Amino acid sequence: MPYTRDFLRQLPETERAERVARILDEYIRPKLNHVLDAARRGLTSHFIEIIRRLQDHITHNEITLDDIQAFLVEHFPDSSVQYLKDQTIGRQGARLLADGFKIDWS
């Protein structure tokens, strides 16, 4: 296979897109069912927390919050998708401040 100039120029972006897709598939795609479960229960929003391992990928510039938001908007196009910090219930009922994305379909 010849490696054209265009192929070589696009290689960094192509590899980044593949890396972002792998990260989204591992950390965000499984959470989509949680949103559907919330809708089944009659709720009108759901908070997807950014867990520590995903935060590590963000810190190392492997993925951005914009990448995650675009993925969620693609899956929930007519819902409001916002990045925010929200209180969650942690172990033993402790309230914790967590950052993540709120999907609101009200």
Description of the structure:
The protein is α+β, with helices and mostly antiparallel strands and about 110 residues long. It has one domain (about 5-105). About 50% of the residues lie in helices and about 25% in strands. The protein has four helices and three strands. It has helices spanning about 5-25, 30-40, 50-60, 65-75; strands spanning about 45-50, 80-90, 95-105. The chain has a three-stranded antiparallel sheet. The longest helix is centred in the first third of the chain and has 23 residues, at about 5-25. The chain is elongated. It starts with a helix and ends with a strand. About 15% of the residues are buried.
| Residue share in helix | 40-55%
Strand order of the largest sheet: 1-3-2
Instruction: Please provide the ordered H/E string of secondary-structure elements.
Output: HHEHHEE
The mean pLDDT is 90
Could you give the topology of this structure?
Elements: H1 5-27, H2 32-40, E1 45-49, H3 52-59, H4 65-75, E2 80-89, E3 95-104
Antiparallel strand pairs: 1-3, 2-3
